[in-house]
Amino acid sequence: MKKVKDYYYKKAKKEKYPARSVYKLEEIQQKYRILKPGDRVLDLGCLPGSWTLFAARTIGAKGLVVGIDLHRGKNLYVTGAAEIRQHHADIFSEDALDAIRQDCPGFNVVLSDLAPNTTGYKLADHLRSVELSKRALEFAESLLFEGGTFYCKVFQGEDFPPFVNQVRRCFKTTKVVKPKSSRSESREVFVLGLKFKKVVKTGL
Ligand SMILES: C[S@@+](CC[C@H](N)C(=O)[O-])C[C@H]1O[C@@H](n2cnc3c(N)ncnc32)[C@H](O)[C@@H]1O
Fold it and tell me: Which residue lies with its CA nearest to atom 27 of ligand 1?
């Protein structure tokens, strides 16, 4: 187990990513090509910035990555890659969704690596993780373009299947994936929603 940790940790250092979590996105990108040149990407829970940097490099100079996190991080920038904009806010705050919408009205991809501060109590951590994931899904439902993609971390537990069903209702294809770089003892898995089915609200 330690070997796996060391391998991804060292690889991240070598490739100049601030966290080994980048490989949980890279693997899915290699398999499903969720990020495409010129895309608009929303990264929920973006610090310390590995997913943001990876997305910016992958989508290239014509793309845009908008990140949001509870904490304030250093400004991220990659020469020749997509523009990166960062918001410092709690995703549960009333203004967060509007602030993102004002910054960019629509996205091709919504990523969520949101994680609660773990307490060691599996049930509490699971429930908090599902709350974050449900909020991430609300962002996706409001901001994704038709046909868009949602990739979201969740800690498994009793409320996980209903969450997956909620995602299933919004996307043509839904998968639960466990990237190799995710520690086997960790309860985290990732829900991947492909081809978002946009519901146009009529206001009735
Ligand atoms: C595992 S880290 C994300 C790592 C990131 N994907 C990377 O590759 O660098 C989870 C992040 O979620 C953020 N987070 C947790 N709850 C949040 C909330 N309510 N609103 C905004 N961000 C939150 C944390 O501050 C933390 O930075």
Answer: 47
Q: Into which CATH architecture does domain 23-196 fall?
A: 3-Layer(aba) Sandwich (3.40)
| Residue of 24, 62, 153, 175 with catalytic role | 153
Query: What residue ranges do the domains of the chain occupy?
Result: 23-196
Residue whose Cα lies nearest atom 17 of ligand 1: it is 70
Per the DSSP assignment, residues forming a β-bridge with 35 are none
Instruction: Concatenate the DSSP letters of all residues of 117-161 into one string.
Output: PP-S-HHHHHHHHHHHHHHHHHHHHHHEEEEEEEEEEEE-STTHH
**pLDDT tens digits, one per residue of 52-102:** 999 999 999 999 999 999 999 999 999 999 999 999 999 999 899 999 999
- Annotated active-site residue 153? The verdict is yes
Q: Output the pTM of the full model.
A: 0.95
Instruction: Tell me the pLDDT tens digit for each residue of 27-36.
Output: 999 999 999 9
Q: Which atom of ligand 1 is nearest to the CA of 71?
A: 25
